[in-house]
Amino acid sequence: MASYVAKPAPPNQDKRWKLVDATIRRQGAHPRGLIETLHTVQEAFGYLDAHALRYVAMSLRVPLSRAFGVATFYHFFTLKPAGEHTCVICMGTACYIKGAPQLLDAVQKDLGIVPGETTTDKKVSLLTARCLGSCGLAPAVVYDQEVAGKVSTAAVREHLKKWTVA
Amino acid sequence: MTPEELEQIAEDERAEQGKYRQRVNVCVAAGCLSCQSQSVKDTLEQEVTRRGAKDHCQIKGVGCMGLCSEGPLVSTSNGVLYKKVTAADSPAVLDSLAAEPVSRLLCSTEVPFFQRQKKIVLENSGVIDPERIGDYIEANGYSALIKALTEMAPREVIDEITRSGLRGRGGAGYPTGLKWSTVSKSVGTQKYVICNADEGDPGAFMDRSVLESDPHRVLEGMLIGGYAVGASEAYIYVRAEYPLAIKRLRNAIRQAERIGLLGANICGTRFSFRIDLRLGAGAFVCGEETALIASVEGKRGTPRPRPPYPAMEGLFGQPTLINNVETFANIAPIVRNGADWYAALGTDKSKGTKVFALAGRVENTGLVEVPMGISLREMVFEIGGGIPDGRKFKAVQTGGPSGGCLPSECLDMPVDYESLARAGSIMGSGGMIVMDESSCMVDVAKYFMDFCMTESCGKCIPCRVGTYQMHRILSAITGMTATEQDLKMLEELCDLLKHTSLCGLGQSAPNPVVSTLRSFAEEYRAHIQEHKCPAGVCGQPVGEPV
Predict the structure, then answer these.
(1) Which stretches of chain B drop beneath a pLDDT of 50?
(2) How much is the pTM?
(3) What is the fold, at CATH topology level, of the domain defined by A85-165?
(4) B353-436, what's its fold?
């Protein structure tokens, strides 16, 4: 018989844990709800830190190693907080053919960071995407959730300048 | 819900729609939304209210109209299609409803892009409001489900699908009827249906458009599938990168539950069905069915050897039916119109139509649905409108990272499962990327290998190490430091990966290399022997996109 394990308390008083708890309840605190729960944590907090992973693992009764394994296996999950703004450059095939590498190169030079990193002033995070599905508008860039199509190097530089100067 | 009640809903909806003499449809699928189509719709609505025309002119948000490169697209009740509409154009568009069309915004529908298409999966896209179930029911929606539940035995549904010749639209082309039949014969305490909406191929956006434009169509297909194989629970595994599709699916499921088309004892029969969403988290390998199942179970998405196939032992060890979005979207029309109607379309072995996401260096990019067997030349030069800027066609890439590049010699080949496979590519899920002479094929092969290398789950060694080594050699070739010995090694690795990898990702990872080695060997030679890139891509300082 499985021994009864009390549900752990959230790492802190943050109200957002209520959202996480709701997802855990909806999944019946079953290990199969791990990915769904991590999605909720990331949506609420923006990233997954060690406290969150430990809390989710204990709540769903999965080993911490498995929670960490899942969190690092999937590209969508991030273990680091993002900057104030995010710039996602699509590297899908259509965008690649239409000049996404040139965009990425320009942004990397301007910001001095590689994809997955955040500038030291925490202003901008640079990411790449596998494919946004906006191939008809290639090359595409997402500025803070907003998709822009047929982007030129000048346009992306211009946009980033607004973020970094302000 | 009885057939009469469904008819009543459709009737009410028709009466409701009939109140409007004029209608303006605005595309609110992802492509046009990123060109600010929402603000176009809002301004149109404000303008209609301002003019006091609210009771006879309807502004409707609809799904994808196909020609994404010319968005935002707007169509009107007098049969005119407008492209690149901005919020400022709203008054002009409304004026044109009772007068001549606005010529500067006009988008001709008399061109091959629209004329050569045959819409089955996309028949409602761009016509109905994806956020209202009433609209879908008015367009004959859910009548196939009612027909299956009230007039057909599960066995008959499967026979109908088998006779239609429908094959899996996810890429491999496994006969759908056969798959359904296997699941229905498998024994288990609980059977599951999974809709694979983890469209990971870069350059493919068909499933996304279907989900965003006509989500109920997919639900109906899943319901019929569930009835046919005896399942009562279902999951849609959808990419987290598609927030709009997720929102519309959630909304559609709620609406269907409310009127009793999902839930317990549907239509007063013993059939009960529940659909839940599971979000993917950005792993290409999860498109492979056993990896997808692991992911739905909350684990890392790693594949496992087959057999046992998911049809026997799938989700939670139970018989599971897994089909792709487009496959499910084909089910309702087949049940409604009969297998013979569907089988009359397409070629001998590939029936029906296929949706393609046409992109890359071609005039008209967007979503097209064509009968199977159409030639690549028609796809690229008629529907696609040819290559822009007077450049020369070089290759068309189908099937994403698992597919291949087809050179101009293949242009007259029919597009069906067998022909594409013979030419060294695959049908894949339907991404079709056109490349012109400005693309270097070695660089393209390297791009796909980079993709497979990072997306390899790491479970089996041939894929994990092989893709890394192949990428290393391809990098050496594009860096002009490779030798003939490297090329030989590359060929050997292609063979090794194909035959020894665990799942489809590794087995098909060499395809882009094999197909470019076959058709563009001289480009590889130029890099190795003459240390130059014929397309001028490799070894160049990166500059402005062209």
Answers:
(1) 543-546
(2) 0.94
(3) Glutaredoxin (3.40.30)
(4) Ubiquitin-like (UB roll) (3.10.20)
